Amino acid sequence: MTASQVLFYAISTVILGSGILAVTSQRIFRSAIWLLLCLVGIAGLYFWMQVEFIAAVQIVVYVGGIVVLIIFSIFLTQESGKELPKPIMRRTVFALLATLFGFAFTYNLVYGHGFAAPTGEAFNVSVAEIGTQMLSTTNNGYILPFEVVSMLLLSAMIGCIVIAMKPPSNKNAGADMLFAQDVPGTRLITPGVVEPDLISEEV
Amino acid sequence: MAFLTYCQCYTAVHQHNTEPLNGWRKGIAATTNQEPNIRLAMFLKDYIVDIFRATKSLLTGMKRTGYYFVHPKEIITEQYPDNRDTLVMADRFRGEVIMPHDENREHACTGCTACELACPNATIKIVTKFDITPEGKKKKALDTFVYHLELCTMCGLCVEACPTDAIKMGQKFEHSVYDRSMLTKKLNLPGSKIREGIE
Amino acid sequence: MFSLQGITNSIQTWLVRNFTGTWVLVIECAIVMLLAITLFAVLGLVLVWMERKVAAHMQIRLGPNRVGPMGIFQTSADTLKLILKEGLTPDGADKLLFNLAPFVVMIVAMLLLAPIAFARGFQVWDINIGVLYITAISSLSVIGILMAGWASNNKYSLLGAMRSGAQIVSYELSAGLSILTIVVLTGSLQIGDIINAQQNGWWLFKGHIPVVIAFVIFMIAATAETNRAPFDLAEAESELTAGFHTEYSGMKFALFFLAEYINIFIVCAIGATLFLGGWMPLHIGSWEGFNHVMDYIPSSVWFFVKTFLLIFLMMWFRWTFPRLRVDQLLSLEWKYLLPISLFNLLLATVVAIFEWHF
To answer: Which residues of chain B are within 8 Å of residue A200 when distances are taken between CB atoms?
Structure first.
């Protein structure tokens, strides 16, 4: 067994082990930390495959973004420090069955795919190459999905601002009017629907 | 993720719109009644002026600390046990109550107990006696000026109350002793008496 | 001339001659680990002492001056004290996470060391996504702080961790955007390329307006990301006792304390690399004689001088400015730094496209 293989099995053990711990842990915060370790392990696997860009993006998006978000929501949840109740038997059985089915399905797909033997030539994963591919309008370019995703994110962003905005009050109505005019649809929000105070207090 | 935090933070920020950093909102509030492009121009002007002022005030502060950093002679630290011989206390430093005596072992205390009455925590206890004047009259005089240093807060009210300036605040501050009773002091020297002419 | 590159090269050739491929890698890993730990220990001792001295002089005091000449052994004495102290774990704490958190913070700091070029040819890993790697890994450090705050089971710790999380997550954006300015100008994410692009002048001088703005924003964001005053809300002593590390004592506290200073060193090293040319000596255009003289100063000296200059700047900030309030902190980021750095990125792109830089 070469050192590379040893590393692969070590990383895989970390991923699988922390993945199992993430779903079996009785404490919600520990689950989040195990999930974090699992995602870091996947980033490690990407590093092992020498696709550094994907690895870094994995860390930025999943670890730096999503797990931090999860941890924040745990912090803001009441009684999240207590141990979770044991899941009922029926649910566990069905979850196990679902997992087995998913595993069998994936295994079947992977087994039947028939991977081509590695050709030996390293594929180009430089950032410049990825960037060009992402914005290229030619045959293999990803410009359309890229732009669609950008639009989705932009609308999500505007939606966030709209939800988080304080409904205009009488005291400083003038200050809020500008925002109301700038963002279409803001006037539909009536006072009382949005409670920004609930989320803002803790931060 | 960052975005959600932004939303939370945004609402948090939203509730304080009288803050110095909130030029953004102030600018808007002040100019709501004007044309949109004028409003924008005013807002941008306020925004930039805000940044300029903030930078200027921060640099002023850094200039001051930077000046201190490169001027070691400004350092005011007293390296106390090492400089005991040369240590000069400030004039108004209040270390303890003392009763000055002149070269004839005479003090200016009449035993009027004004200081005792003025003391907020019963630090001073004055024991009086009656002297016989040459005319054969009895006259109240100081026997013992008892001063409890351990109770004293060095407030100086006794000194202010004294009508004859018999006591004042001394500058000695090394008062640590092994026994608490040693802190109870008699301020008038043994055998001292009141100076002539002080009533 | 003394050269770190020569030493690393000779070690490499000696190892390759005497061992097989895997063992060379293992031994080199061990050497790197040893060097990293030594660097951390030395940096901790030096930076804490430096901080106390700088603080004292800015406040017209003397600072530590009893243990050794100028008090240079003060931090060693403090470390000894911390080693001898008991590391308490509170009863209600989540023991596993509580004990893990300081190590997470330290490991993240160690990972960040990898792409930093300490001297010409003296770099652990010149990864082709260098700057992105740094941005990615530094976002991990918040996890350790959140873990510590949660596991302590203490309201001060939790509040400190929450503040720290909000702060790091938001200031990461403007730090990333100001780093991107340099990436746009250089056209590469690799640290080696970025340094080589500054052969004929540092970006701070070559890139004029956009880079100067980016530098200022980077320094502010770096101060905030390392949770230092005026952005030390996460451990605001007057409000939260000690913030997320309230419950920590002994060596575990020392690890947090050390990690803070290591992080300062790392962000300043990154700032020095991106804006001040890393180990690249000061070269001025076509002054051959001057450039030649500058080349005689070893590259490691250049790197450390620049880094410590930036560290001094951050200490200067810390001992001059009062602490921001939470809402001020966030409005500074979202209403000032972020819009400005977005605009600045646009400006930098224009400058890069039309090659208006020198």
So the answer is: 8-9, 11-12, 14-15
The CATH number of the domain where A38 resides is what?
A: 1.20.120.1200
d(CA B115, CA B122): 10
Please tell me the distance from the alpha carbon of residue C276 to that of residue C290, in angstroms, as a whole number: 18
Tokens 């002026």 identify what position?
B49
Q: Is A174 within a domain?
A: no
Residue A46 lies inside a defined structural domain of this protein: yes
User: CA–CA separation, C291 vs C200, rounded Å?
Assistant: 10
Q: Do C142 and A72 touch (CB under 8 A)?
A: no
DSSP letter (8 states) at residue C201: S
Please, which residues 10-69 of chain B have a Cβ atom closer than 8 Å to chain A? 10-12, 14-15, 17, 25, 28-29, 32, 39
β-sheet bridge partners, residue B138: B132
Partners of residue B106 on adjacent β-strands: B193
Least confident segment among A80-84, B136-140, C225-229: A80-84
Q: Which residue of chain A is at minimal alpha-carbon distance from B23?
A: A175
Of A95-109, A118-132, B178-192, C221-235, which range is least confident? A118-132
Q: What number of other Cβ atoms are within 10 A of residue B60's Cβ?
A: 10
Cα–Cα distance, B159 to B157 (Å, whole number): 5
Give how many domains chain A has, as a whole number. Answer: 1
ipTM over the 0.90 cut-off: no
Six-digit token string for B70: 């490169």
Number of Cα atoms under 13 Å in the Cβ half of residue C252: 24
For residue B170, the cross-strand partners are B96
* Chain B CB contacts of C325 below 8 Å: 19
Whether residue B176 lies within 8 A of chain A, CB to CB, comes out as no
Residue A42 domain-assigned? Answer: yes
Mean pLDDT along residues C219-239? 81
- Domain annotation covers residue A152: no
Bridge-based pairing of strands B184-186 and B138-148 is antiparallel
Instruction: Specify if C256 maps to a domain.
Output: yes
Chains that touch C (3 or more CB pairs under 8 A): A, B
Residue C6 lies in a domain: no
CATH number of the structural domain B96-194: 3.30.70.3270
Helix (H), strand (E), coil (C) string for chain B:
CHHHHHHHHHHHHHCCCCCCCCHHHHHHHHCCCCCHHHHHHHHHHHHHHHHHHHHHHHHHHHHHHHHHHHCHHHCCCCCHHHHCCCCCCCCCCCCEEECCCCCCCEECCCCCCHHHHHCCCCCEEEEEEEEECCCCCEEEEEEEEEEEHHHCCCCCHHHHHCCCCCCEEECCCCCCCCCHHHHEEECCCCCCEECCCCC
A52 interface with C at CB cutoff 8 Å: yes
Residues C165, A81: C-beta atoms closer than 8 Å:
no
Tokens of B32: 């709501």
Taking an 8 Å cut-off on Cβ atoms, the answer to whether C137 and A2 are in contact is: no
Contact A59, A47 (CB under 8 A): no
Exposure on the CB side of residue B102, measured as CA atoms within 13 A: 10
Considering only the beta carbons, identify the residue of A59, A68, A126 that sits closest to C165: A68
Pairing of strands B184-186, B193-194: unpaired
Q: What is the domain extent for residue C337?
A: 89-354
Average pLDDT of every residue of chain B: 78
What is the average per-residue pLDDT within B15-28? 46
> Quick one: which of B112, B116, B115, B143 has its CA closest to B129?
B143
Q: What is the pLDDT of residues B43-54, one digit of tens each?
A: 888 888 888 898
The number of folded domains in chain C is 1
Domain that includes residue A62, residue range: 1-81
| Local confidence band at A98 (pLDDT 50, 70, 90 cut-offs) | very high
> Could you tell me which of C77, C267, C69 has the C-alpha nearest to residue C176?
C267
Range A148-153 average pLDDT:
92
The answer to whether position C29 is within a domain reads no
In a domain, C266, yes or no: yes
